[in-house]
């Protein structure tokens, strides 16, 4: 058949069109909104965003590890298959657009959660569409300690931010949760007073956020794992196994899609535990395996990384370590010295939440440090 | 006697394309078309099946694809070699004019051949991802139905994506 004639006669059905579009990167889709009204309506619909996300999750070439750094206000994307830095990922990673002092909380389904180091605001942000929403927390970091968690309520398909706060002079811990569907905060009752390690939660897994916390003082202090269920909005406290006394020797990580505790016992050997019975009040810990690290305790767990660790080697390079395969990869950073301060998995998506606004564009092209890598 | 057993062993189906061309295919190939497999399972399959949405040119390609996949999977080779072989075949098979690719994709959807549908969708997506709006409109035969104001607004929304 004559190619021109073929073209005139042939139309692709809407369903087939949707399937082809769902396999495109976000930046192409944002452009293709201008093709025609039908394409604009398809690409803008929430159901298409869900379908596209499903495709992105099942395609490992769409995944990246965002490494956060302490010196630069940048997130640096790495390929999780080869651990080499991505050079052409179309995401906007400049945390500096949001303020001077920013903490990175987590990444779920293409949405990132960051918060100001003052604790006064949090921000949900999609770096692929460059849309964001800033939310006031009503917390003042000067008079209160706080720690932020982020999660996806799988039942209501809602994105939630949890803030644990504790006024310095009053020994009572409070928890509040913000829902993207309701665009409002809700206070959660907690009966126990406890203190937390850092300003962001330790681990986020499948609809839960986890913190390593402790209550009591001195020899009476007890280390616990606080888990927050994003669907039921209930905070539970579970004592950690055996005699671990020091919260700094405990790390939260993800093992087989479950929360796991990596615990050091005064040596460099680490025990990995998972919670076996997850019903309330009947939790028990089970020892999974041990591993030994020669780089001490200055490592970060990669959220959603299934037993992946990251650490800085003498401030010159990054080391990725996979607990499952025990493979190690060093990425040397020659020119731009920076220290990693954690890492998160990222899958690009079109996901949007109510009230998303456009980021004031910094049109300057993002500068990326020159990185070379060796095994 | 022997000829009748042969007949039951090698069941064949006749597939008729939109433009009236008849193709003879073995059952192992026909079952890869989910629409036909369902007919067979529901005992509704007649030996003669009309496929109204597929031209003979495209149907010939579809049958070539299904034949190769059926042979490779039942060939007794190890799974990794079969996988490699299919990968090479698929890559070569996708090396066709993009209009044929679009028709193959639609046919795979209509005939419900999951692997071919996935393959063509993926190939088309990687073909178009860097194309301009005008090129995409031409390829998919879609008209620009925006008003001037609408088009300006939709382009402005994500202006950075065009840079």
UniProtKB/TrEMBL annotation, chain A:
UniProt-listed Gene3D superfamilies: 1.20.1280.50
Domain of life the protein comes from: Eukaryota
Pfam families assigned to the protein according to its UniProt record, in alphabetical order: F-box (PF00646), FBA_1 (PF07734)
Limits of the F-box domain: 12-52
Protein name per Swiss-Prot or TrEMBL: F-box kelch-repeat At3g23880-like
Species this chain originates from: Olea europaea subsp. europaea
Automatic annotation (TrEMBL), chain B:
Domain (SKP1 component dimerisation): residue spans on this chain: 114-161
SKP1 component POZ domain boundaries: 12-70
Similarity comment text for this entry: Belongs to the SKP1 family.
GO BP field: jasmonic acid mediated signaling pathway; protein ubiquitination; ubiquitin-dependent protein catabolic process
Assembly and interaction partners: Part of a SCF (SKP1-cullin-F-box) protein ligase complex.
Record keywords: Ubl conjugation pathway
Role this protein plays: Involved in ubiquitination and subsequent proteasomal degradation of target proteins. Together with CUL1, RBX1 and a F-box protein, it forms a SCF E3 ubiquitin ligase complex. The functional specificity of this complex depends on the type of F-box protein. In the SCF complex, it serves as an adapter that links the F-box protein to CUL1.
Pathway membership: Protein modification; protein ubiquitination
InterPro entries noted in UniProt: SKP1, SKP1-like, SKP1-like_dim_sf, SKP1/BTB/POZ_sf, Skp1_comp_dimer, Skp1_comp_POZ
Domain of life: Eukaryota
Species of provenance: Olea europaea subsp. europaea
Protein name from the UniProt record: SKP1-like protein
Pfam (any one): Skp1_POZ
């Amino acid at each position: 058949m004559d190619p021109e004639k073929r073209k005139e006669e042939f139309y692709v059905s809407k369903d087939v069109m949707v399937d082809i579009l769902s396999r495109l990167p976000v930046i192409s889709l944002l452009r293709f909104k201008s093709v025609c009204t039908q394409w604009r309506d398809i690409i803008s619909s929430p159901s298409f965003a869900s379908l596209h996300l499903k495709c992105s999750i099942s395609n490992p070439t769409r995944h990246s590890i965002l490494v956060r750094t302490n010196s630069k206000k940048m997130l640096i994307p790495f390929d999780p298959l080869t651990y080499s830095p991505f050079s052409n990922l179309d995401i906007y990673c400049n945390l500096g657009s949001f303020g001077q002092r920013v903490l990175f909380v987590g990444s779920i389904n293409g949405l990132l959660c960051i918060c100001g180091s003052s604790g006064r605001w949090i921000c949900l942000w999609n770096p692929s569409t460059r849309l964001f929403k800033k939310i006031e927390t009503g917390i003042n970091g000067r008079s209160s300690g706080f720690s932020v968690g982020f999660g996806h309520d799988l039942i209501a398909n809602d994105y939630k931010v949890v803030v644990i706060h504790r006024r310095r002079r009053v020994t009572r811990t409070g928890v509040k949760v913000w829902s993207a569907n309701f665009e409002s905060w809700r206070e959660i009752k907690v009966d126990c007073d406890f203190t937390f390690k850092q300003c962001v939660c330790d681990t986020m897994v499948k609809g839960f956020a986890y913190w390593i916390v402790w209550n009591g003082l001195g020899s009476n202090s007890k280390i616990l794992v606080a888990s927050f269920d994003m669907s039921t909005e209930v905070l539970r406290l579970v004592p950690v196994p055996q005699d671990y006394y020091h919260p700094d020797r405990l790390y939260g990580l993800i093992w087989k899609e479950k929360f796991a505790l990596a615990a050091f016992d005064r040596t460099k050997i680490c025990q990995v535990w998972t919670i076996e019975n997850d019903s309330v009040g009947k939790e028990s810990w089970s020892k999974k395996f041990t591993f030994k690290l020669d780089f001490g305790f200055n490592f970060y767990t990669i959220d959603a990384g299934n037993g992946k660790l990251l650490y800085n080697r003498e401030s010159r390079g990054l080391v990725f370590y996979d607990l499952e395969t025990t493979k190690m990869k060093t990425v040397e950073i020659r020119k731009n010295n920076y220290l990693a301060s954690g890492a998160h998995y990222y899958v690009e998506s079109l996901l949007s939440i109510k009230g998303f606004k456009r980021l004031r564009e910094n049109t300057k092209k993002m500068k990326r440090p020159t990185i070379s890598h060796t095994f | 006697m022997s000829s009748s057993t042969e007949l039951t062993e090698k069941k064949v189906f006749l597939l008729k394309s939109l433009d009236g061309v008849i193709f003879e295919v073995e059952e192992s190939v026909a079952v890869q078309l989910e629409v036909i497999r369902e007919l067979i399972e529901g005992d509704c399959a007649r030996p003669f099946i009309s496929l109204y949405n597929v031209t003979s040119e495209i149907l010939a390609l579809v049958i070539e694809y299904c034949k190769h996949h059926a042979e490779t999977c039942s060939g007794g080779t190890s799974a990794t070699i079969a996988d490699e072989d299919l990968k090479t075949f698929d890559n070569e098979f996708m090396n066709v004019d993009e209009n044929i690719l679009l028709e193959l994709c639609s046919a795979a959807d209509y005939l419900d051949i999951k692997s071919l549908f996935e393959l063509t969708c993926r190939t088309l997506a990687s073909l178009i991802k860097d194309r301009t709006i005008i090129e995409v409109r031409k390829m998919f035969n879609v008209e620009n139905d925006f008003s001037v104001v609408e088009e300006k607004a939709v382009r402005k929304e994500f202006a950075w994506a065009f840079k």
